[in-house]
Design brief:
- The complex is a heterodimer of chains A (312) and B (518).
- By secondary structure, chain A is an all-alpha fold.
- Chain A has a two-stranded antiparallel sheet. Chain A has a two-stranded antiparallel sheet with strand order 2-3.
- Chain A has 15 helices and four strands.
- With 518 residues, chain B is α/β, with parallel strands linked by helices.
- In chain B, the strands form four sheets. A six-stranded mixed β-sheet of chain B has the order 6-7-8-3-9-10, sandwiched between helices.
- In chain B, helix 4 runs parallel beside helix 5, helix 7 packs across helix 16 and helix 13 runs parallel beside helix 14.
- Classes of the chains: A mainly alpha (312), B alpha/beta (518).
Chain lengths: 312, 518
C-alpha cells in the first residue's frame, strides 16, 4: 500500500508544482540526499527486530561524522584511516550499549538514551562547537559521484537494504533474531541465545550508524555538531512506517527504505510548495503516529512483544 | 459453636467443557470454627474457592445461605460485602512497597483519598497489627520480609478487609459473619510460624468469625482445624470433626481406599535397557538432592503436590533454572548440572516441552513452520547461512503429519489453531529435533479430551521408538494412564517410586500427602 501512496504523493506534488517537482534533477536529488536517512533507519532494523530500542543511532552517526572531519581536516590523517577509526568507534559504541543492556540489565531505552546524549556532548567537544569544513574531496567524489545522475550513495543504500533483507529473511541468525523479539522466553527455551543476539544487534547498529555518519560527511564534505540528532525521529518514523508495507506487521528492510524515501518525498515536496520548515517536524511526527495506528496497533511492534494475538 | 451456620454453600457443580470439576459439592461453616477444606490435585478445592471468591460462576442450581438468609453467590469482588477475605497462594503483595502500603489495596486505611496522611496511616496500621499481636514494622518494605512474615501480613490484610466488609452490615460489631479463606497460603510455614498463625486465627474465631483453610497438607489440617470437609474428584466424600478423624481416615478419604492387591510386582527387568538420562544429587531452589534414572523406551512420571519441587526438576535439567549442584548423565556423557543451558541441552538431545504453552511453548503470531523448525535451524543451513526453504518445508510437513495437526497447514500462524493442535505443534517442534530424551511439563493442560488422547498416543509411540520420556505432571490420573514408573516428591526430595500394581491414582495421591516419614 505504501508504494502506491508514495506514487500518489509524487503525482500530487508534480501537479501542484510541475516546474519544480517532477524534474529528474529533483527526483535524483531526493534519492541522493536522503540516502543518509535510509542508512540510519536501516541501522535500527536488527535491534528493533530483537526487541530493543536504540536511541543512540543518530548521535552515533553525528559522532562518527565529526571524528572523520576532525581527524582528516585538523589532524591531516589520511581519509581511509579516519573512516576505519570512525567505524570502529561506532561498533564499539554499539558494543558498549549491548554491554550495559545485557550485563548490567539496564533497559535498552534508557541505556541508549543516555549513550546518545553523551555522544552528542562529545561531538560538541570534538568540534569545538564549530562546523568543520574541507573534508577530503576524495571522499566526497566517491560518495557524491553519480551513475545515471544519482549519487553512488543511493546505490550503496540499496545494496545495504538488500543485504539486511537477506540477513533478516533468509538466514538462520535472522530467524533467531525475529523470534528473540517476538517471544524471548520461547526463543530461549528453543535454544536461541537471546542475550548474545541482542548484543550483536546492538553492536551492528552502532556500526551502521557510523556508516550513516560517513555518508553524511561524504555528502556535504563537512560535519556539524548538531544536525545529526534531528535524524532520530525520522529514522524511527521510517522503521514504523516501513512495517506497514512489504512485510506488514514486521520491521523489514525494503519497507523501511521505501518509507524513508516516502518521507523524504513528502518533506521535499512540502518545502518546494513553499511551506515553512516547521512542517518537517509536524510531518514526521504525524506520520509516525498514523503509521503505528495503521499497523493494527503499535503493540505488535513494541519492545516487549510476546506472542501477539491475531492471525494476519 | 452456635447452631446456625455462618454460611452454607450447597449443590455446587461446575464443568469445564467435558471435565467435571465439581459435582453437587458444598461447604458449611459454623461461627467460631476453623474449617479445613482438604483435597489433592484435581479434587475441585481450587474450583470451589474460585467460585466463592467470585472468580468463576458455578453451574445453575448452586445455593448459598449466609447466617440463615439466602444470598446470591458473590460475583467479582462482591465477596467483600459479605465480610469475606481471601488469601491466595501467591499472597498478592507488592514486594517493592511497604507493609502499610500493601495494607489496603483499594485505598488508604485512615485518611480520605484526597488527603493522605502517612502518619495517620502508620498509626492505624500499627494499631491493626498490634491488635493481632503481629510483630511487623509498617514501614518495612515487603521484599525485606521473610516468607512466613509475608504470609502473616497477607492474612492480617485479609482479616482487616473482612472486618471492613462487615462493618456496613452490623454497626455495633455484634453478630459478625466474617470468614477468612486461606488458600494454600501456608505452604511455606514452619512449625513455629504455624503456632503464630494459629494464635492469629484463634483471635478471629474467638469473636465468632470463621476461618477456612484450604490445603493438601494433612498435618497442617489436623493441627489447625476444628472441622474438615474432604473433596475427591469433585465430590464431598466426608465431613466431620477433625479430632474424630485419624490420619489414616483422612488419607483414605482424600486418596481413595487402598487398592485390594497389596502384592508388589517386581518392575519388569529392563536393566538391559540403556539409561538415557541419569540424574545425581540435583539441587535447586526448591529441590534438595534428587537422583533418578530414565531408560530408553521408558515413560517415567514425576509428580508431587504444590511446593514439593517436582515441577522445578525439568527446568533444572534443561538449564532454564540454574541448578546449584548435581550431575547429569545423558546417553553416556556426564555433565555438571550447573553447566546446562537450553541450547546445550538441545544439542545433546535433551528437550523440554514447557508447561505454559502461550508464554513458553510457541510464538502464536509466527507460522507453524517457523515455530517447528526453530530449535533445529542448524540443520537447514545452506550457503552464507541461508535457510534452505525446501528442507525446512519437508521437515515441517513431516513433523506436522506425525503429530496429526488439523488442518495440516504449516504455513498458517499458530494462533489459527485450537489449543489441542497448538500443543501438537509444540510437540512437533521437539520431535523435529530427534531428541534422545524428552521432558514434558503438564503436557495436556487446557486441551480437549481427544487431543489429550492423541498426545498420549504420540508419547507412547515415541517411547516405543526408543526415546526416554519424562512426564512431569500434577495430574495423577494422567500419570496412571501413561507412565511405566512414577516418582513422587515431597518437600524437595523423591519419597516414593511406584510401578506395577502400585501405580494407581490413589496410591500416588497417598504418597504425595504422606507425612509420616518426613
Amino acid at each position: 500500500m505504501l508504494p502506491v501512496v508514495w506514487v500518489l504523493l509524487i503525482v500530487v506534488f508534480s501537479v501542484a508544482e510541475p516546474s519544480k517537482f517532477f524534474t529528474h534533477a529533483d527526483f535524483a536529488n531526493i534519492l541522493s540526499s536522503q540516502a543518509t536517512l535510509v542508512i540510519l533507519s536501516l541501522a535500527l532494523l536488527l535491534p528493533l527486530t530483537a526487541g530493543d530500542f536504540d536511541l543512540s543511532v543518530a548521535s552515533n552517526a553525528g559522532f562518527a561524522s565529526m571524528i572523520i572531519a576532525v581527524l582528516n581536516v585538523s589532524h591531516h590523517l589520511p581519509i581511509v584511516l579516519c573512516i576505519v577509526i570512525a567505524l570502529a568507534a561506532g561498533a564499539g559504541i554499539g558494543f558498549i550499549n549491548g554491554l550495559v543492556i545485557i550485563v548490567f540489565n539496564v533497559d535498552a531505552f534508557i541505556a541508549t538514551l543516555g549513550m546518545g546524549t553523551v555522544l552528542a556532548g562529545l561531538t560538541l567537544l570534538l568540534s569545538g562547537e564549530n562546523t568543520i569544513n574541507g573534508v577530503s574531496p576524495g571522499l566526497v567524489s566517491v560518495v557524491d559521484g553519480t551513475w545515471f545522475g544519482i549519487s553512488h550513495l543511493f546505490y550503496f543504500a540499496l545494496a545495504l537494504t538488500l543485504v539486511l533483507w537477506y540477513v533478516a529473511e533468509h538466514t538462520i541468525t535472522g530467524r533467531r533474531i525475529l523470534f528473540a523479539g517476538l517471544g524471548p522466553v520461547v526463543a530461549q527455551l528453543s535454544g536461541v541465545r537471546v542475550s548474545r543476539l541482542r548484543w550483536a544487534a546492538m553492536t551492528l547498529s552502532g556500526l551502521l550508524a557510523a556508516l550513516a555518519g560517513l555518508s553524511y560527511v561524504g555528502t556535504i564534505g563537512a560535519a556539524d555538531p548538531v544536525s545529526a540528532s534531528g535524524l532520530l525521529l525520522p529514522a524511527y518514523a521510517a522503521m514504523f512506517l516501513g512495517a506497514t508495507t512489504i512485510a506488514p506487521g514486521r520491521f523489514n528492510a525494503w519497507g523501511t527504505t521505501i518509507a524513508a524515501y516516502f518521507l523524504a518525498t513528502g518533506f521535499t515536496g512540502l518545502e518546494l510548495l513553499g511551506v515553512n520548515s516547521w512542517v518537517q517536524q509536524v510531518f514526521y511526527g504525524g506520520i509516525l503516529v498514523i503509521a503505528v495506528a495503521l499497523a493494527s496497533g503499535g503493540s505488535r511492534l513494541s519492545r516487549k512483544s510476546g506472542a501477539a494475538a491475531g492471525a494476519n | 459453636m452456635a447452631g446456625e451456620p455462618l454460611f452454607a454453600l450447597r449443590k455446587v457443580s461446575k464443568s469445564f467443557g467435558a471435565t467435571r470439576a465439581l459435582q453437587d459439592a458444598g461447604l458449611t461453616v459454623y461461627p467460631g470454627e476453623v474449617h479445613g477444606l482438604l483435597g489433592t490435585n484435581g479434587s475441585g478445592k481450587s474450583t470451589m474457592l474460585k467460585i466463592l471468591s467470585g472468580f468463576i460462576a458455578p453451574d445453575d442450581g448452586a445455593e448459598l445461605t449466609v447466617r440463615g438468609e439466602p444470598a446470591p453467590i458473590p460475583v467479582g469482588g462482591e465477596y467483600r460485602r459479605l465480610g469475606w477475605g481471601f488469601v491466595h497462594q501467591d499472597l498478592a503483595l507488592y514486594p517493592s512497597l511497604r507493609v502499610m502500603d500493601n495494607f489496603h489495596l483499594s485505598g488508604p486505611v485512615a485518611s480520605p483519598p484526597y488527603a493522605l496522611s502517612w502518619r495517620r496511616e502508620y498509626r492505624k496500621v500499627s494499631e491493626i497489627l498490634e491488635r493481632l499481636r503481629l510483630n511487623l514494622d509498617p514501614r518495612e518494605t515487603v521484599d525485606r520480609l521473610a516468607q512466613p512474615q509475608r504470609a502473616l501480613l497477607a492474612i492480617a490484610r485479609a482479616m482487616y478487609e473482612a472486618e471492613l466488609g462487615n462493618e456496613g452490615h452490623q454497626a455495633d460489631g455484634t453478630n459478625p459473619r466474617e470468614v477468612l479463606f486461606l488458600d494454600e497460603s501456608t505452604v511455606s510455614l514452619e512449625a513455629r510460624d504455624r503456632a503464630e498463625l494459629l494464635r492469629v486465627i484463634r483471635r478471629m474465631t474467638a469473636r465468632g468469625c470463621a476461618v477456612v483453610i484450604v490445603s493438601h497438607d494433612l498435618g497442617e489440617v489436623r493441627e489447625l482445624t476444628d472441622r474438615v470437609t474432604v473433596l475427591r474428584d469433585g465430590r464431598v466424600v466426608g465431613t466431620g470433626l477433625t479430632a474424630e478423624l485419624s490420619e489414616g481416615d483422612l488419607l483414605t478419604l482424600v486418596a481413595g481406599s487402598m487398592p485390594e492387591q497389596q502384592v508388589e510386582h517386581e518392575p519388569p527387568d529392563d536393566s538391559s535397557a540403556q539409561v538415557v538420562l541419569g540424574v545425581a544429587d540435583l539441587v535447586g531452589p526448591s529441590v534438595g538432592g534428587v537422583s533418578f534414572e530414565c531408560r530408553r523406551g521408558e515413560i517415567l512420571g514425576l509428580t508431587g503436590l504444590a511446593g514439593s519441587g517436582f515441577d522445578e526438576i525439568p527446568y533444572l535439567l534443561y538449564g532454564a533454572v540454574r541448578a546449584s549442584a548435581g550431575q547429569v548423565v545423558l546417553a553416556g556423557d556426564e555433565f555438571e548440572a550447573r553447566w546446562l543451558r537450553p541450547n546445550r541441552a538441545i544439542r545433546l538431545g535433551l528437550c523440554l516441552v514447557p508447561g505454559d504453552r502461550r508464554q513458553q511453548g510457541v510464538v502464536a503470531s509466527a507460522t507453524v513452520r517457523a515455530n517447528v523448525t526453530l530449535p533445529s535451524l542448524e540443520r537447514y543451513r545452506g550457503v552464507l547461512g541461508w535457510v534452505s526453504r525446501a528442507r525446512e518445508d519437508r521437515d515441517a510437513a513431516a513433523s506436522t503429519t506425525r503429530v496429526g495437526l488439523v488442518p495440516p497447514d504449516y504455513n498458517a500462524p499458530v494462533s489459527a489453531f485450537s489449543g489441542g493442535n497448538q500443543q501438537k505443534a509444540v510437540l512437533a517442534k521437539w520431535f523435529n529435533t530427534v531428541p534422545k530424551m524428552l521432558m514434558l511439563h503438564e503436557p495436556t493442560v487446557g486441551i480437549d479430551v481427544r487431543a489429550r488422547a492423541q498426545v498420549h498416543e504420540l508419547l507412547r509411540t515415541a517411547a516405543g521408538d526408543g526415546q526416554g520420556i519424562l512426564c512431569v505432571s500434577g495430574d495423577f490420573e494422567q500419570l496412571e494412564q501413561l507412565c511405566d514408573r512414577v516418582l513422587v516428591m515431597r518437600k524437595g526430595r523423591i519419597r516414593a517410586e511406584l510401578t506395577g500394581s502400585r501405580l494407581t491414582k490413589s496410591t500416588i495421591a497417598r504418597e504425595s500427602m504422606n507425612v509420616s516419614d518426613d
